[in-house]
Amino acid sequence: MDLSYTAEQTAFREQVRAFLKAELPADLAEAVRTGRHLQKADHERWHAVLNARGWLATHWPVAWGGPGWDVVQRSIFEDEAALAHAPRIVPFGVNMLGPVLIKYGSEAQKQYWLPRILDGSDWWSQGYSEPGAGSDLANVQTRAVREGDHYVVNGQKTWTTLGQWGTMIFCLVRTSTEGKRQEGISFLLIDMTSPGVEVRPIITLDGAHEVNEVFFTDVRVPVANRVGEENRGWTYAKYLLTYERTNIAGVGASVAAFERLATVARRLGMVNDPLFAARMARIEIDLENMKTTNLRVIAAVAGGGAPGAESSMLKIKGTEIRQEITGLLRRALGPYAQPYQPEALEPGWNGEPVGPPEGAAAASSYFNNRKLSIFGGSNEIQKNIISKAILGL
Asked: H or E stretch including 26?
């Protein structure tokens, strides 16, 4: 298996670097580098830049507005974007719903929704998790009862990331209680401005408003907004999750985060501490191993294969590495990681941080990244997948 890049792939990497150098707004890159909170307008601005270049929907075929990249090109783009401190593409519409519509949506749904995802007409949210149905998605209780040409939806979703900005939400809803739990689920597209939809904020430990609860009370949804067949939503949900878990590994993000950690550690002299240096070396070794595993998966897919349990392995290791990096950054900063300055993470703040500039976001990033090993299918669930797929347990 050849894991080296070809001349064409190297040239593509240079093309991506040139684009990022010319088109990535400096203020957005600085906000990402220092861990500041991005606003809806920030994400929309970066999406518009990528869409104008035809590089927003990297997983989509050319026929629907994608660049037509292969898996190697997508990997190169994601790595370089992370290293340049570009905002991550908000995944819900572009990376999650888009591929599902392209594979399972009706022609009318593709024609209507896909262009709106690209031009930002809709801000999509994800309605998967519920109280009692997180990693066990088959237990969703939100009900959709058909009445003529509509479904009437009642229930609750939770941990809806950036749902406070949402105009549309794709949801798993229970349309049958017959048979296996997985066989009674449908996949609906719900207008969040509909009567009966209520979004309530969940303020996280760092004081940020990132996640929400979404309640549905007698919300009427056109049957035309159901993707695929009734009670077959589990199939579409699993397809969507493969895209979510691949992104969660975040190889490029970990490489960029490790570079920031190394810079801070050198500046503060922590690299001279044997124990600290050993922990950094452990991360670097794990990161290099993950990059190699990622390249093996990419090479397999490029050769016509399909990722299996390797996706779960990447999700587990990728999230552990990112959590370890944020933990070590706090240790490197020492007391400067302790002051609570939430205003320092908001746009437009020009005050003086306590200590090095990286200190303001260190604790927030550390606590926020605890979620990485939980969402998208907890790491314990991924280990069960590996044990079943590889060990046959």
From this structure: helix 26-33
